[in-house]
């Protein structure tokens, strides 16, 4: 039973590599209000979106969105978007069957969430945002997905040494299903090219917490001019999203 005002966390039970979502019940929140927000959504990966939809909250079945993924958008009680993202494209039936068969031997519910796969932020100046997350914080850029039909592009970064199937072309479609099957959480940047229109931070979104190992902690403290002995410090990205860096032995995101 949740106590009002007390933070509580959600993380897929079968996956300690996934980010945790931390919730706190407070009064006076402003509901999420669309494309001017720096925070967009979280993405949750599942092997079978339609199986989950058939058993949960009367969610409609998914749809293949261009060559990005098979997905369905829903909203939480605070009106924040949640993306249910399948680990395979709609046409990848053999691969999906194999993943479901493997999951049946390791998971109690095969269509349960596998990971909080993305925390999605919007950005206006993608060069500055990539400099912050990739060059300053030290994340790896894993995939770039232009979506010209919708006038935006997507960039996915994480603390990992993984190499995508086509590392020479991060826009390659073959990298995408591979990315949706990663057990860890990525930071997804949606670049919408309106540099003169600022983004605001809704009160339903607080911060992204990144736990970093000792070597990265030391490097970041030197860059930021912070005390090595503290346990955390905060920064803002180029679009004013709050990022809290926490000292820890294993990099992850919350």
- The residue fraction in helices comes out at 10-25%
Series of H and E elements: EEEHEEEHEHEEHEEHEEE
- Spans of at least 5 consecutive residues whose pLDDT stays below 50 are none
What integer value in Å does the Rg equal? 18 Å
Biggest β-sheet: count, sense, barrel? 8 strands, mixed
Describe the structure.
This protein is an alpha+beta fold and 254 residues long. The protein contains five helices and 14 strands. The strands form three sheets. It has an eight-stranded mixed sheet, with helices on both faces.
How would you summarize this macromolecular structure in one to three sentences?
Helices cover 19% and strands 31% of the residues.
Give the arrangement of secondary structure elements:
Elements: E1 8-10, E2 21-23, E3 39-46, H1 49-55, E4 63-65, E5 69-75, E6 81-86, H2 93-104, E7 115-123, H3 126-136, E8 140-147, E9 152-158, H4 174-180, E10 186-191, E11 208-212, H5 214-224, E12 232-236, E13 242-247, E14 252-253
């Amino acid at each position: 039973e949740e106590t009002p005002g007390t933070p509580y966390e959600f993380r897929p039970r079968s996956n300690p590599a996934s980010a945790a979502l931390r919730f706190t019940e407070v009064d006076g929140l402003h509901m999420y209000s669309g494309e001017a927000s720096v925070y967009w959504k979280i993405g949750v990966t599942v092997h079978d979106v339609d199986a989950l939809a058939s058993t949960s909250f009367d969610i409609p079945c998914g749809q293949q969105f261009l060559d990005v993924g098979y997905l369905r958008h829903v909203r939480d009680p605070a009106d924040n978007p949640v993306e249910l993202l399948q680990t395979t494209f709609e046409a990848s039936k053999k691969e999906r069957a194999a993943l479901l068969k493997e999951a049946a031997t390791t998971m109690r519910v095969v269509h349960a969430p596998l990971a909080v796969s993305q925390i999605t932020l919007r950005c206006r100046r993608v060069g500055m945002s990539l400099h912050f997350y990739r060059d300053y914080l030290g994340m790896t850029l894993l995939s770039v997905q232009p979506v010209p039909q919708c006038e935006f592009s997507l960039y996915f970064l994480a603390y990992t040494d993984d190499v995508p199937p086509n590392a020479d072309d991060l826009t390659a479609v073959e990298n995408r299903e591979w990315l949706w099957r990663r057990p860890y959480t990525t930071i997804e940047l949606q670049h919408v090219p309106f540099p003169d229109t600022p983004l605001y931070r809704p009160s339903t979104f607080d911060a992204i917490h990144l736990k970093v190992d000792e070597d990265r902690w030391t490097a970041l403290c030197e860059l930021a001019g912070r005390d090595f002995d503290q346990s955390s410090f905060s920064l803002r990205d180029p679009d004013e999203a709050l990022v809290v860096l926490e000292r820890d032995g294993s990099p992850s995101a919350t």
